[in-house]
From TrEMBL, chain A:
InterPro entries: EMC2-like, TPR-like_helical_dom_sf, TPR_EMC2. It holds the Pfam family TPR_EMC2. It is found in: Endoplasmic reticulum membrane. It comes from the Eukaryota. It comes from Hibiscus trionum. One of its GO terms (cellular component) is EMC complex. Gene3D superfamilies: Tetratricopeptide repeat domain. The lineage of its organism: Eukaryota, Viridiplantae, Streptophyta, Embryophyta, Tracheophyta. It is a peripheral membrane protein. This is ER membrane protein complex subunit 2. Part of the endoplasmic reticulum membrane protein complex (EMC) that enables the energy-independent insertion into endoplasmic reticulum membranes of newly synthesized membrane proteins. Component of the ER membrane protein complex (EMC).
Automatic annotation (TrEMBL), chain B:
Residues 7-142 form the MPN domain. The lineage of its organism: Eukaryota, Viridiplantae, Streptophyta, Embryophyta, Tracheophyta. It comes from the Eukaryota. This is Embryo defective 2731. InterPro entries: EMC8/9, MPN. PROSITE patterns: MPN.
Length: 300, 204
């Protein structure tokens, strides 16, 4: 997960390198640290260093990490020859290495030899049953083949062992959402909120899922989580502000003729609406008219 | 169901949708089609513009509801309405119209019975730089009398054409120049309202 500042830092470096200002190695390190997927740049910048023997030697032992990064980026860009070359270099330097074995498995995946890749991963897991990366590669392979139920099964098994892997919980939640299994997605976000209660993204996603599930009770809880997102982000989250308005409108629709008005925080929606109008006025005033109409149609 | 319909999509709307799919090539994306029934010929639906919507968590309601309200409001003032939905699957070899696309399509159908569902054809997209075909890179689905979304086949019946015949050539150019970098969708707008989902500068 990448914050806005981290993303702009990465983009700034990218622009710098693209315009000849150097900084390729810094970019590659940051991309690796943030685990972002920008294979074209990683491949281009990585090769520019690897193909220059002076730059390569200057890296010292870190050059092997670069070979690995470039191999993976090359596979993502379908430049399999580059990937093969990088892996050969690593095989020579680190024979019998499990980490290189992983790359070999990924290469099998990239060339479409899925059955071979499956065998390679299984045998690596026999020697190393706690290798998280390989467990996750198995999930990724199942997903890539369209076998979503297998991906869910593997991912659930993985999370039974590695229940602190937040990225895995998020991946599982997103898979459930894509299948419209919202209750199961909600469970995943509940786990994430329990273990990392100050990350606003989980509150927001949880609220979105609850709203999608519908029904008064879920909407009431969704509204609370939109509110906590606003709290955690200092009021800067447009999605959460809009979420409050949507919840209020939907709850009003559902409680028509039921005499169950939402007596909690009646000012919340007008405050949210005001905050939205202020933001749009300052930053996107060409869309302010649309926002006002939208709020009006939601009867805020 | 109604007589055979012809769906005419403008180059502008068409290219925007494909570029959006190319920008987010590791996830599913979707978009909304805007247009109207041709005032001179009620068997022709003109798809005049499109708005790229999301590239993450497509099956969540809140962003979709807001997007539909705002899009409808903006285009309504130009006399255009929502006439269909575009979807591109996450995986290259997934050519099925998924349940989420069908659900959103059903919703649009309620307001516009000639609604079109367009699904990106990945194999055709792959072939674009090589061939010089004029047929759109999307498959057209329409609702039949049994409330199912059916693929409009080459054996007659409704069909989708691009208004400008050289659209795929233009698209090829844009692909080589990586024009998709500049495309903004509703997801981007919700993350930063400064970004404009109307993409007014994209084709200048």
């Amino acid at each position: 997960m990448v914050s806005k500042t981290e993303e702009s830092q990465l983009n700034r470096l990218e622009n710098q390198v693209d315009n000849g200002g150097g900084g390729a190695w810094e970019y590659l390190c940051l991309a690796r640290k943030l685990k972002v997927r920008r294979p074209e740049k990683a491949l281009k910048y990585g090769l520019s260093i690897l193909n220059d023997s002076k730059k390569r030697y200057a890296l010292g032992p870190e050059q092997w990490t670069l070979y690995e990064q470039v191999a993976i980026a090359a596979m993502d860009c379908q430049c399999l020859d580059v990937a093969k070359d990088c892996i050969k270099v690593l095989q020579k330097k680190f024979p019998e290495s499990k980490r290189v074995g992983r790359l070999e498995g990924m290469l099998l995946e990239a060339t479409g030899s899925r059955a071979e890749a499956e065998k390679a991963y299984s045998s690596l897991l026999e020697d190393n049953p706690l290798d998280q990366v390989i467990h996750k590669r198995r999930v990724a392979m199942a997903k890539a083949q369209g076998n979503i139920s297998a991906a869910i099964e593997w991912l659930n098994k993985y999370l039974e062992i590695f229940m602190a892997d937040h990225d895995a919980w998020r991946e599982l939640a997103e898979i459930y959402v894509s299948l419209q299994m919202y209750k199961q997605a909600a469970f995943c976000y509940e786990e994430l909120i329990l273990s990392q209660p100050t990350v606003p993204l989980y509150h927001l996603a949880y609220a979105d899922v609850l709203y999608t599930l519908g029904e008064l009770e879920n909407l009431q809880i969704a509204k609370k989580y939109y509110a906590s997102t606003i709290d955690l982000t200092g009021g800067k989250n447009t999605r959460a502000l809009l979420g409050i308005c949507l919840c209020t409108s939907a709850m009003r629709q559902l409680s028509k003729g039921r005499n169950k008005e939402d007596k909690e925080s009646p000012e919340l929606q007008s405050l949210a609406a005001k905050a939205l109008e202020k933001d749009y006025e300052q930053i996107a005033d060409d869309k302010l008219g649309l926002l006002t109409c939208a709020l009006r149609s939601l009867k805020i | 169901m109604a007589a055979e319909l012809k769906y005419e999509i403008s180059q502008h709307a068409y290219i925007k949708l494909v570029l959006h799919a190319l920008k987010h090539n590791t996830t599913a994306v979707n978009g909304i089609l805007l247009g109207r029934v041709n005032p001179q010929n009620e068997n022709v639906v003109e798809i005049i513009d499109s708005v790229p919507l999301f590239h993450s968590n497509i099956a969540l309601l809140p962003p979709l509801e807001i997007a539909l309200i705002m899009v409808e409001e903006h285009y309504g003032s130009q006399g255009l309405g929502i006439v269909g939905y575009f979807h591109a699957n996450e995986r290259f070899d997934d050519a099925e119209l998924g349940i989420v696309a069908k659900n959103i399509g059903d919703h649009i159908f309620r307001y516009f019975p000639q609604a079109a569902l367009l699904l990106l054809d990945n194999k055709k997209l792959e072939a674009v730089p090589k061939g010089k075909g004029q047929s759109p890179l999307m498959q057209l689905y329409i609702r039949d009398t049994s409330k199912n979304w059916k693929l409009a086949g080459p054996d007659g019946g409704s069909r989708l054409v691009i208004k400008e015949p050289a659209a795929n050539v233009v698209l090829s150019d844009y692909i080589s120049s990586e024009k998709w970098q500049g495309i903004v969708d509703f997801d981007d707008h919700l993350d930063d309202i400064k970004k404009d989902w109307l993409n007014p500068e994209l084709f200048k």
